[in-house]
Amino acid sequence: MHRILMLLIVITAGVMARPAAAALNIFACEPEWGALAKELAGDKAAIYTATTALQDPHRIEARPSLIARARSADLAVCTGAELEIGWLPLVQTQSGNPKIQAGRPGMFEASRFVTMLEIPAQLDRAQGDVHPGGNPHLHLDPRNIAKVAGALAERMAQLDPGEAAQYRARAQAFLQRWQEATARWEKAGAPLKGMAIVVYHKNMSYLSNWLGLREVASLEPKPGLPPTASHLSELLANLAREPAKAIVRAAYNDPRAAEWLSERAKVPAVALPFTVGGNEKAQDLFGLFDDTLARLLAVAR
Amino acid sequence: MFNRNLIAAAIALAFAGAAQAQDAELAKIREEIRQMKESYERRIETLEKRLAEAEATAGKAADGAARQAAAVQSAPAAASAFNPAVSLILQGTFADTKQDPNTYQITGFMASGGEVGPPKRSFGLGETELTFSASIDPYFRGVAIAALTPENEVEVEEAYFQTLALPQGFSLKGGRFLSGIGYQNEIHQHAWDFQDAPLAYKAFLGGRLRQDGVQLRWLAPTPVFLEFGAELSSGDQFPGSDRNKNGVGGGSLFAHLGGDIGASYAWRAGLSYVRATAQNRAYTDVDSLGGAVTDSFTGRARLWVADAVLKWSPGGNAVYRNLKLQGEYFRLRQDGTLTYDDSGQAAPQFGTPISDYFTSDQSGWYGQAVWQFMPRWRVGYRYDRLHYGSIANGIVANGLGPTAADFSLLANHSPVRNTLMMDFSPSEFSRVRLQLARDESRIGAPDNQVFLQYIHSLGPHGAHKF
What pTM did the predictor assign? Predict the structure, then answer.
């Protein structure tokens, strides 16, 4: 056993001598932050996106591949507000990477730079899987993306001072394009104001808040609990009295409950990409909002 | 001796680096945070100004901007915010077993002394687990887990510190912790897929290996998960025993390899080695006349464990359907002296301790599959098998004293167990489970078991291991 231990130490010492890579290594918790990091860093960073648009961001496992990728990250870009609480703490401790531990500059949490919605006044699990810091699905408001973009570019500049000017210049250019696009979306989205929708999970709140949509019900009886037959029947009865224009779900939400209700209530079901990669049109942040608006406008008439 | 130097060096290395860097680093971090804060405030101010302008030109400055104009949030700063995260696990069973759980044994294998028997019949409380965890400072994290047993005792399950700031993928853990060997060993009971541990864990580790010592892990800088670990411990747990000696009592080495196959599959495989030394590791047995005898083993034990786990879920979204396959193989070799002592009896056959050589080479494995076929519902099947292998018992071989019939626990038997379970999880924080098993751990007395179990988790959302 002693010989094996010695061997282990020798191998370790050898590996420690490796020089660090020049580019910024970024570990993005969700696809929207991976896409944003790409806009801001271009080819100055190697970006690994830990989850896909087809995975429920609440229910990710601390897979070995995530731990391995977090090991050499210089910067982790995550939502925060406990969205990743089921897996990120484990990935942080098991990665053995001091740079991305909580409180370090390498741990970037988008939720710190925006105004959170739906901060619960009372914390009780009887209310379902509530997040003490507020609703964490903050990226579906483009104004939040702009706020996070500014903060993220500064963070990149801080961690990679040699390229600071580059990050700032790219952020300037991105924000310019983003503001033009936001103005365009808001103009196009004007008819959506006041539109009644049914959501699957409380994951569209920032979108609704931005566009002025009215969420009249959600398919989940409580946040995080799957839709039940009795709850859906109740919704059906309510929809007969108070009709909605659409039943909106994210690409990762199970389509069955939405389709069941859609068929009976004669309300169209809409699958939004939710994040980058959620469908073939939402391949970057601009595509994400273009497609989201288009799908909502298609049912608004 | 070498062991002792090594451990001292490892600890010195870990602490010296941290302490030296501490002051300079702290000042640096403070300065960085101050600069960060200033620069963010500046950036956000200009951004908000620009946003407001953009919105004004779009003719929509009124409602949206007012809502968003609120200042950027700052974290709450009450003194209680530094309290460690506390969580509590409630567990309990309703058990129906054909055989008396108090007479549980795994025939063919030396008793491990661990709590390996089935839960008590009728209603029974499981262990109530109380967990505290928090960052100690920028360099360490601390975790303590206390188990409140149904016998109204408090046990320290785990209590360890873990480094957060070692460079190059190293991390050091110290205190009492579940060993990193195998796959299931590090997983807490409330997160198991069955009510009880696999037979191999019961026979070769007394349920699981818990170390009082230090653990050093190193994660390789590769896109594939590759991790090595070494533990030095007091070695007082089965297959070792408390020896009241200076130095390191036992240790283990392990390596894990893992990764993804496409988006839908994730896997991990590993190989582990445990070395322990036992001194008068005693257990009670029954001789050929039905009298109680004390057998004790002194010698060394070497255990190899190979483990593999594969998880599948459509596109990596495990919420609706997923499958988990898991299997582990154990091989334990022991080499030393066995002492037979029936002097505790009123009318002993021999009346004096008898010692001779003892070697054993035994193995066991299990394989299990757990299938979540719809949200909340899972079914699982587990097959357990232990192989008696070979035992050379010098006391029996020399033919002068006790015979094989005086070692009833070491009778030639290869236990088998088949287990079925179904569980329902109303939410991520609660679970009820029905488990049926036919357990042939005892020779000639198969046990039919029915367990109904609940597991509830209170407090912050804990992260679960892969």
Answer: 0.85
